[in-house]
Design goal:
It is a single chain. The protein is of the alpha/beta class. 41% of the residues lie in helices and 18% in strands. The protein has 15 helices and 15 strands. The strands form four sheets. The chain has a five-stranded mixed β-sheet with strand order 6-5-4-7-10. A five-stranded mixed β-sheet has the order 13-12-11-14-15, sandwiched between helices. It has a three-stranded antiparallel β-sheet with strand order 1-3-2. The chain is globular.
Length: 423
């Protein structure tokens, strides 16, 4: 038992040291000794072992505090790779990340709307992953796993998509198993907004924060939460569906079946619906004639473009701007409610709407701050997401890294025999 306990403690210390180097970017033996409270000799042996497995390497010297300059170590970024896929109603993004979470290769394509109506969408996802691997030129034996960022609701533990309102073809599909079986490697699945939050936590606007709320304003409305540096699933899962909280008592029916959801009044789908209502009432817009001839000719992207998407200027179509700012108002109210309920350190707003139309974020932020208790409004930061439209794929790949960095070194997939470290 004593030997088993010693092995367990050694494993935990080794994992903690590797996680510390990952979090800090680079660290010296003294840094790791201070963090783990282990002796310098124990840390030296542990570092030598991690070097022997090619997981870390020397990166230079730190500034001296009086004696010899301490040697710094960092992850060997090209030792292993992780794949992250983000499926949305309109686009599929796949990113191949190195061990430090940097994007090594990226593939993007439009979501096949016909396939979304059946589980044929799984074949498109497989094809996208295959293409990303081909573009990356990465040895498949170095791929740790595949992370999947999929609109909820879903069961992340069983790996089954439940009933996504805008993706009926995935309802009940055991997507985690299907992907794992095809590629023969580990697969992981989480709600897309949760993984965007995870990506922002490690690589974006939430770096250094422990309690994070993320709201995704896109074709749909999603949200994800991190508490104490960990994804918050609820009990057992399903937390964070702010998009399906009621915000308009007499509002329109949502694709989820309820009425007046935030998604039903503020999403890209809602903006498209509202544009049609206004145009049929006689409102003017540059796309009015096109819409009256063919309703499908006008999409959210048409509205964003006419509003002056991306330039933040005061020019642009009045109706389009009105509809976008109306959506931002509802999102701002929802964010204010979340702050009063959870009081996170930081609220991040991302998705197509704030990326494509900058005044959207500013309006949502101002509405939220005006509705938060004055005593609290200066204690929470409301910021725009930093990772752009790749946030979901980066977060999905980061999920794979999270799982593998939590393992003991000896458990890592297909680990090559260790090198002899020069003494």
């Amino acid at each position: 038992m004593r030997g088993a306990n010693n092995r367990t403690v050694k494993s935990m210390n080794r994992t903690a040291a590797l996680q510390y180097i990952r979090k800090q970017g680079q660290a010296s033996r003294a840094d790791i000794a201070a963090y783990t409270r282990l002796s310098f000799t124990a840390v030296k042996n542990m570092i030598d072992e991690l070097v022997s497995y090619r997981l870390i390497g020397e990166v230079g010297y730190d500034e001296s505090s009086g004696g010899r300059k301490p040697l710094l170590y960092k992850l060997k970024a090209d030792r292993f790779y992780a794949i992250g896929l983000h499926l949305s109603v309109s686009r599929i993004h796949v990113a191949v990340l190195d061990l430090e979470g940097r994007v090594h290769a990226h593939y993007e394509t439009a979501t096949d709307q016909d396939k979304l109506r059946s589980d044929a969408i799984v074949l498109q996802l497989i094809g996208c992953i295959e293409e990303a691997i081909r573009l990356s030129d990465v040895d498949r034996g170095l791929i740790l796993g595949i992370g999947l960022a999929i609109p909820g609701p879903l069961d992340p533990f069983e790996g089954v998509v439940l009933s996504p309102p805008n993706m009926q073809g995935l309802a009940g599909v055991p997507l985690k198993r299907r992907i794992a079986d095809h590629f023969g490697i580990a697969a992981f699945i989480e709600k897309d907004a949760d993984l965007i939050a995870l990506g922002e936590y490690w690589h974006g606007a939430a770096r250094g924060k422990q309690n994070v709320f993320y709201l995704d304003a896109d074709i749909g409305i999603g949200s994800g939460m991190i508490f104490g540096g960990q994804l918050h699933h609820g009990s057992p899962y399903g937390a964070g569906e702010v998009g399906h909280g009621t915000i308009h008592l007499d509002g329109p029916r949502c694709n989820c079946g309820n009425y007046g959801c935030l998604e039903a009044v503020a999403s890209g789908i809602a903006i498209e619906r509202r544009a049609g209502e206004e145009l049929r009432r006689g409102a003017d817009a540059p796309y009015r004639e096109s819409y009256l001839a063919d309703e499908k000719s006008v999409s959210l992207y048409t509205i964003l473009e006419e509003a002056g998407a991306g330039n933040g200027s005061g020019d642009g179509d009045a109706l389009s701007k009105q509809l976008l700012l109306e959506s931002a108002r509802y999102v701002g109210i929802a964010v204010g409610n979340v702050v009063h309920l959870l009081m996170p350190e930081i609220v991040i707003i991302g998705g197509t709407l704030p990326y494509a139309y900058p005044p959207y974020f500013e309006h949502a932020r101002d509405i939220a701050l005006n509705r938060i208790f004055a005593a609290f409004s200066d204690k929470v930061r409301i910021v725009k997401a930093e990772l752009g439209m790749l946030g979901g794929a980066i977060g999905a790949g980061t999920l794979v890294l999270e799982h593998f960095f939590a393992k003991d070194v000896s458990e890592w997939a297909d680990m090559e025999p260790p090198l002899q470290v020069q003494q």
